[in-house]
UniProtKB/TrEMBL annotation:
SUPFAM superfamilies: GroES-like, NAD(P)-binding Rossmann-fold domains. It comes from the Eukaryota. Residues 13-341 form the Enoyl reductase (ER) domain. It comes from Suillus placidus. CDD domains: enoyl_reductase_like. This is Chaperonin 10-like protein. SMART domains: PKS_ER. GO terms for molecular function: oxidoreductase activity, acting on NAD(P)H. Pfam families: ADH_N, ADH_zinc_N.
Amino acid sequence: MSTQQALWLPGIGQDFAVGTKEIDAPGPGELLVKIISSGLNPLDWKIQENGFIQFVKSYPAVIGEEAAGNVEAVGEGVTDFKEGDRVFFQASLNMGSKFTTFQQYCIVIADSAAKIPDHTSFDQAASVQVGIIPFVVALYAQQPEGLAHLAPWLEGGNGKYAGQPILIMGGASTLGQYAIQLARLSGFSPIITTASFHNTELLSSLGATHVLDRKLSTTALKDAIAKITSIPIILAFDAISLPDTQQTAHDIVTAGGTVITVRVPQVDNKHEDKVVQQVVGSFHIPPNRELGKSFMPALTQWLADGTIKPNAIEVVPGGLNGVSSGLQRLKNNLVSGKKLVVRPWETA
Ligand SMILES: NC(=O)c1ccc[n+]([C@@H]2O[C@H](COP(=O)([O-])OP(=O)(O)OC[C@H]3O[C@@H](n4cnc5c(N)ncnc54)[C@H](OP(=O)(O)O)[C@@H]3O)[C@@H](O)[C@H]2O)c1
């Protein structure tokens, strides 16, 4: 049996350690992918610290949620991919360590993979899926997973929501940057976001019409928004979803409006006319699978023609041994406006 290097998490609250792991064969509808670049996400340190039973059911485990690489082998029934294709994907984290990305090879559900366009690097591609999928599900999935808006890659969807404002809390986060770009494609206007000032130019280039200081109080933010638009805000996407950002978004949307959170809703005195709804950004949930299948070719095309820009990335040195330090930086809010990736084949 062939083996590879993998980053093992021995148990909740324990340190990661590089070790060996078998290389699995792809089953029907699956791909075996050689991982060239693997993205780091806040969920990874949260799993390490606290465990998340819905994602990781037993230890030792290999985690990691997204990656890019080369197809090494295809399982029975796979027709859309062949050996040698460059692909990027969101891992099926809850299906176990065969499917996760802090290792040199993993198994991928073929329907959840997309081809990487020629001019997009593995490192860039590895940073896209976990960041973009939450807004896609939140806006374009059918209810109750999403708001059932017409997606911008479908006929009649591009620009459909012209003239409707949207508030995006935390535009410089990975999720926020993709939310801004998809909101632009859907036609939302104005697109108002909160961020540190040094990210203003970046977020404007992605489509934000107004970048407001993330440190403004709720009252000051409300006043600033009132000067931008007289149309009531009926939709907010909180890409940060700390208790204070959720509360602010909740207080700003008008009666009848919706706040999408990316973490568990924690809003005090919830106004009964306002919906606060958590999105689970995954195409692996059965009701979202068709949406994922229809989105993947559009994502490849949008990256190829520059419609969607990947986040700036930083390659953390040391291969899989770099994951721990990278996650510490994410945890301590030391990463601004970019995404960290590691290259598993650079593991010493
Ligand atoms: N529900 C889901 O499916 C799902 C999926 C993926 C991630 N998540 C969660 O989504 C959250 C964001 O993940 P991510 O990968 O996008 O994070 P990230 O890229 O690491 O976020 C870092 C950015 O957050 C911004 N930020 C931090 N606090 C802020 C605040 N109070 N107001 C405005 N901006 C703030 C900072 O912006 P500045 O640099 O401008 O200060 C920084 O650039 C995490 O909690 C993650 O666990 C949920």
